[in-house]
């Protein structure tokens, strides 16, 4: 199991805890355990199948796990699976379908959607001000409370008032 499979396993465990409480109430989480929503064998099977990208739709989930799950829960589980282990859409999509848009945007978009292939894509650079330490601007911006224009105008006001 790689790090993504561990992450998926944890996410599914959290999810079934939440669902157990939501459907059966808090006492059942303690009495019965979260396996009333999703058994351990089902969870293991999902992680295995997700690794090989076998689960794309609700029917895949039912077929692979023999889990009698309703559509709503199945959809939530599939969303979790695809969030952590994305299906490689770009390998199954014909590249020549939209030649114009593909040449411009497809290669970058494909990589950006797959953090495993491009680890830096998931990390957003946050602008941080070196003067005041707040995020979202730099020290040259007028939004910065430490910007010289604010300090001088505040000083000017004080001088006028006194
Ligand atoms: Zn600042």
Textual characterization of the structure:
The protein has 162 residues and is mainly α. It has 2 domains: 82 residues, no CATH class; 38 residues, no CATH class. It is 58% helix and 0% strand. Helix 1 packs antiparallel against helix 5. Bound molecules: zinc ion (ZN). The site of zinc ion (ZN) has 8 residues, from loops.
Throw out a few tags for this protein.
binds zinc ion; mainly alpha; about 160 residues; 2 domains
The dominant shape is: elongated
Helix content: 55-70%
Bound molecules: zinc ion
- How far apart lie the N and C ends? 71 Å
Order of helices and strands: HHHHHHHH
Structural class: mainly alpha
Largest sheet: none
Q: How many runs of DSSP E, i.e. beta strands? A: 0
- Roughly what is the average pLDDT, rounded to an integer? 79
Unreliable runs: 101-107
Number of domains: 2
Rg is 25 Å
Number of helices: 8
Oligomeric state of the chains in view: single chain
Percentage of residues in strands: under 5%
List the helices and strands and how they pair.
Blueprint: H1 3-24, H2 26-31, H3 40-51, H4 58-65, H5 71-84, H6 89-92, H7 99-112, H8 148-161
Question: Quick recap of the structure?
Answer:
The chain is an all-alpha fold and 162 residues long. Helices cover 58% and strands 0% of the residues. The protein contains 8 helices and no strands.
């Amino acid at each position: 199991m790689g790090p993504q499979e561990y992450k998926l396993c944890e996410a599914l465990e959290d999810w079934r805890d939440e669902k157990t409480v939501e459907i059966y109430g808090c006492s059942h989480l303690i009495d019965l355990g979260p396996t009333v929503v999703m058994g351990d064998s089902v969870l293991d099977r999902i992680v295995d199948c997700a690794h090989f990208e076998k689960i794309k739709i609700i029917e895949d989930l039912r077929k692979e796990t023999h889990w009698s799950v309703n559509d709503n829960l199945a959809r939530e589980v599939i969303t979790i699976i695809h969030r952590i282990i994305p299906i490689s859409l770009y390998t199954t999509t014909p590249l020549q379908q939209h030649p114009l848009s593909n040449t411009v945007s497809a290669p970058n978009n494909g990589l950006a959607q797959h953090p495993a292939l491009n680890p830096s894509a998931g990390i957003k650079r946050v602008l941080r001000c070196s003067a005041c330490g707040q995020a979202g601007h730099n020290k040259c911006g007028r939004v910065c409370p430490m910007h010289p224009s604010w300090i001088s105008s505040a000083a000017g006001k004080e001088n006028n008032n006194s």
